[in-house]
Design a protein that fits this description.
25 helices, elongated
Length: 635
């Protein structure tokens, strides 16, 4: 019983292959019976070979004909095979029945091979869907209970043990571990995570147990968005494929009309006999069919999408893979894109009688009561030092903060604010502060009682790979690279200079960024925009290709963008452009090969140098060849 179940499962999974094998076996036995003169046995076996090998093609062809009122390549193949068999019966030249059966067999084998080739691409994409477990271990009143992922709610606390997959996005409440995020972000090395860090569904937990708080619905997790977008990418056709589809519909009609003319006119025009005329017409139906042309594009683009997903580059559809290869200009947002978006202490300059640690500890004592990003950066920098939190803390938004620590008044803020409390600002420190501000840094003054202790320079850190990415893009031939930001001119130019961007547009509102993208499109046609925030969404939508940062990006930016960099790695932009250009090259090669084979086979048919089986082998061989060629992008 188990054997038959397994056999049934195998037959279901490999139906095309089983049909091709049975068709081949029946064809061989039918040919052998004809060779021995057993006509009755041959006429029993050969129709069975026709039905088993050609059923799927006939079904698809007739469905297209009756439902869509269009002629399908599959139907043309069946017509050619049945025509050859009819001609063989009419003329009692039974080798023509064998020719028709060989046509169906090769077509069946080709379909099975194409199916396996496409399954390889689909497996790469479907593997995303197996990255999350079906259940999660939830803490309910101090006890662990497994519930389906779909029942998780925001605020639930879940436990993930060593070696388990993270079931949904969340924030670590307790525990420390390393997580393998390669499947989601493309990062090759495990990442250390501890309390307060965000974790993503589908990533693999290392050696430590984690307690995680769910902070968004399970269906909104990063991996679920990835799966939805990849599924969308598989169903949407790029413009080149839409053109080929339209071309096929008109082309199939031309083939039928030309086939009818070729089957009727030559005896009157050139004196051909009817057997030769019909046989050449049937061969024409086979060799002129655009199967290889139809397979020239989508296998290539789907392979490119799968390749990109493995490297942490998510293409929402094949059209974007095409477009990214044609990009001539790129606009970068600054904060969160070229920079990390996380403020950090850049430099601490104390006056002579104090140390760096003195200044940091004093500032942290009052800033520990602040929620301002600058305050958080100072507290983070002083996390390894011993300091006491201040009392009676008061903050004046946009100016500074004051408080009492160790019975002394602490003042932290800008120069104007601090100057209200101190006797004077040291001139040397003024010059240093001015120089730092010209470099785009935010300068915070620190004073105790009436005496200035020093200044702290705060800066948004430039991404480590930003400069190398800009250099790589220039080497790839991107003609124009610009930076768009709502920040001030000094900060913008400082970051641009650090990463190697020459043109800067600063102090922009979202609609201003949109205008810049439109102007770039007028000059360079295909323009990419890279951003992460809500204010970047209009520009991302307007750009020919919108590229969003997957981790730091807002939900609006992720939904609007065409390409998502899962690990926020800017260097992947160059990889995406290379992948796009390579896909274009392979598609062009495939189209040349497909058209070349069709032309060669047509000429051979008119010259009478090929028979029906050779025409089928050439036609189906070219189809398999371009399909396999497209799969080169999987590597």
């Amino acid at each position: 019983m188990l054997y038959f179940q397994r056999l049934g499962q195998f037959t279901k999974e490999h139906a095309d292959t089983v049909a091709a094998l049975l068709c081949g076996l029946l064809l061989f036995l039918g040919w052998f019976a004809l060779h021995l003169g057993w006509l009755g046995f041959a006429f029993l076996l050969l129709p069975a070979a026709y039905v088993i090998g050609g059923y799927e093609s006939a079904r698809e062809g007739l469905t297209t004909l009756f439902k869509e009122k269009e002629l399908d390549v599959d139907l043309l193949m069946i017509v050619a095979a049945i025509g050859a068999a009819s001609l063989g019966l009419w003329r009692r030249e039974y080798h023509l029945i064998i020719d028709g059966a060989i046509l169906i067999l090769i077509f069946a084998i080709s379909g099975a091979l194409e199916g396996y080739a496409m399954q390889r691409t689909e497996r790469s994409i479907r593997s995303l869907m197996s990255l999350t477990p079906d259940t999660a271990r939830v803490l309910l009143q101090g006890r662990e209970e497994e519930i389906p992922i779909s029942q998780l709610k925001v605020g639930d606390e879940i436990v993930v043990k060593p070696g388990e997959l993270i079931p949904t996005d969340g924030i670590i409440l307790s525990g420390y571990s390393t997580l393998n995020q390669a499947a989601i972000t493309g990062e090759s090395l495990p990442v250390e995570k501890t309390v307060g860090a965000e974790v993503f569904a589908g990533t693999l937990n290392g050696y430590g147990a984690l307690q995680i708080k769910v902070h968004k619905p399970a269906q909104s997790s990063l991996i679920q968005r990835v799966i939805r977008l990849v599924e969308q990418a598989q169903t949407e056709e790029p413009s080149s494929q839409e053109f080929i589809d339209r071309f096929e519909k008109g082309y199939a009609k031309i083939i039928v009309v030309a086939g009818i003319l070729l089957a009727t006119l030559p005896p009157f025009l050139w004196g051909w006999d009817w057997e030769t005329t019909i046989y050449r017409a049937l061969t024409f139906l086979v060799v002129a069919s655009p199967c290889a042309l139809m397979a020239a594009i989508m296998p290539t683009l789907l392979s490119g999408i799968a390749n990109g997903a493995r490297q942490g580059i998510l293409f929402k559809n094949g059209a974007q893979l095409e477009k990214i290869g044609k990009v001539r200009a790129i606009a970068f947002d600054k904060t969160g894109t070229l920079t990390t978006g996380q403020l950090q202490v850049f430099q601490v300059i104390p006056v002579s009688e104090y140390t760096r640690d003195d200044v940091l500890k004093t500032a942290a004592s009052v800033e520990s009561s602040s929620e301002h990003p600058i305050g958080k950066a100072i507290v983070q920098a002083a996390s390894d030092l011993n300091w006491v939190g201040a009392i009676e803390v008061q903050a004046l938004p946009g100016q500074g903060i004051v408080g009492i620590a160790q019975e002394q008044q602490i003042i932290v803020g800008n120069a104007v604010f601090v100057q209200r409390y101190v006797t004077n600002l040291p001139e040397e420190l003024r010059e240093i502060a001015q120089s730092l501000e010209q470099q785009g840094k935010t300068v915070v003054w620190v004073a105790r009682e009436v005496e200035v202790m020093g200044v702290i320079a705060i800066a948004d850190q430039v991404r480590s790979q930003a400069a190398a990415t800009i250099t790589r893009l220039k080497k790839l031939g991107v003609e124009e690279i610009v930076m768009l930001t709502g920040d001030n001119q000094e900060t913008a130019h400082s970051v641009a200079e650090a990463v190697g961007i020459d043109r800067v547009y600063a102090q922009l509102l979202p609609e201003d960024k949109l205008d810049v993208i439109r102007r770039l499109q007028q000059q360079y046609q295909t323009v990419a925009m890279v951003g992460d925030g809500i204010n970047d969404a209009p520009a991302l939508a307007q750009a020919s290709v919108g590229i969003a940062m997957g981790i730091s990006g807002s939900d609006v930016a992720l939904e609007t963008a065409d390409i998502v960099l899962m690990a926020d790695k800017l260097e992947k932009i160059a990889v995406a452009i290379h992948l796009g250009r390579r896909s274009q090259l392979i598609v062009k090669q495939n189209i040349v090969v497909a058209l070349g084979f069709i032309l060669l086979l047509l000429v051979g048919n008119f010259l009478g140098n090929i028979n029906l089986p050779i025409g089928v082998i050439g036609h189906e061989g070219s189809t398999v060849l371009v399909t396999l060629s497209g799969l080169r992008l999987l590597k």
